[in-house]
Amino acid sequence: MIKEMTCVVCPNGCLLQVEYEKQGDQVAIQRITGNLCKRGLEYARQEMVSPRRTIASSILVEGGSMPLVSVRTSGPIPKAMIFPVMAEIRKCSVKAPVQAGTVLIPNVLDLGVDIIATRTVE
Ligand code: SF4
Question: Which of the residues 10, 70, 74, 81 could staple to 114 if both were Cys, CB 3.0 to 4.6 A apart?
């Protein structure tokens, strides 16, 4: 089987073709083409075995100059954990002020990734 995907590691956005076989629940990758560099190989392997995403959202701020502060994960999380992490973010609120870069939820759901403010709210 062949799966096509766009590498999102850099702005080149190489169109990758992954030849693979399914063996039960396992994916056996036979060949990856279309990548201009090695990072595309790693991206394609990760996407086939355990796709991950960095997510962005916002958290309520009490008493701030704005009602919300934008946040993101400090690194990619498994795609299957996006909705549970979003639920944790929705449950959270913080008191103003919030500085950009502050960890608002450390090690969310034990994923080894923090939820970080991406702007300052006075
Ligand atoms: S394969 Fe390399 S050059 Fe192509 S998009 Fe991915 S990181 Fe960029």
Answer: 74
